[in-house]
Amino acid sequence: MLPKQYRLKKRIAFKATYRVKNSSHSGGVTLFAGVLKKEEAPTKVGFVVSKKVHKRAVKRNRLKRLMRESYRLLLKNGELGNSQKYLSLVFVGTENALGKKFDEINSSIKKLLEKI
Prior knowledge:
The protein is of the alpha+beta class. It has a single domain (4-115), classed as Ribosomal Protein S5, domain 2 (2-Layer Sandwich). 38% of the residues lie in helices and 19% in strands. The protein has three helices and four strands. The protein has helices at residues 11-19, 57-77, 102-115, and strands spanning 22-26, 29-33, 44-49, 88-93. A four-stranded mixed sheet has the order 1-2-4-3, sandwiched between helices.
């Protein structure tokens, strides 16, 4: 689980990140990046899988867990690259990512973080 200081929680913060319209897509996962940081603070991260993607909460939560764990491991290993320049990041899972295994999700998230 991600430490509390890295979690994006409030609806207003999610909307502000979407409003910037800085996004990229890879392997069923879309990454929205917020504004650039002005001060030294940790980058907040949110994970979203809409009810429109799948009606079963079990499937949606599994995809969110996979994305969260992948980001946590990248954070632990220091492989986040330029993504730490942003104030907030939101990973959005799509239908294409539902049946994928951890390795595929992990490689998608690595590609997205490199693109930014």
